[in-house]
Design brief:
Keywords: Membrane, Transmembrane, Transmembrane helix
Distance between the termini: 37 Å
InterPro entries: DUF4229
Number of strands: 0
Protein name: DUF4229 domain-containing protein
Organism: Streptomyces oryzae
Pfam family, one: DUF4229
Largest sheet: none
Length: about 100
């Protein structure tokens, strides 16, 4: 496993959270200054979070393409190794039962 994929899942998750937090701050400021509607009644915090989620999702999809591909590669390698271990363990069990 190369160094670029060794912590790909952690890197992707951290960057995804960072984009969400950035959007949350921007939306919070926009609602605070009245540039975006603040919601109805006491729904302001829920509105801000939902709007930040809606904005951050497509941004993450576009901006984190390389990190997402590296994470997929890391997961695929892990699944491949697990399959190899499972096959090796099954082979050992078959040998033990045949003896």
């Amino acid at each position: 496993m190369s160094s670029s994929t060794s912590h790909a899942t952690l890197r992707y998750t951290t960057m995804r959270i960072g984009i969400f937090v950035g959007c949350l701050v921007v939306v919070g400021l926009l609602t605070h200054f009245g540039l975006v509607p603040a919601g109805v009644g006491k729904s302001n915090p829920i509105w801000v979070v939902l709007l930040a989620l809606v904005i951050s999702a497509p941004l993450s999809y576009v901006l984190l393409r390389r990190q997402r591909e590296a994470m997929a590669e890391q997961i695929a390698q892990g699944v491949g190794k697990a399959k190899e271990r499972l096959a090796a363990n099954q082979g050992q069990e078959d040998e033990a039962q045949g003896a």
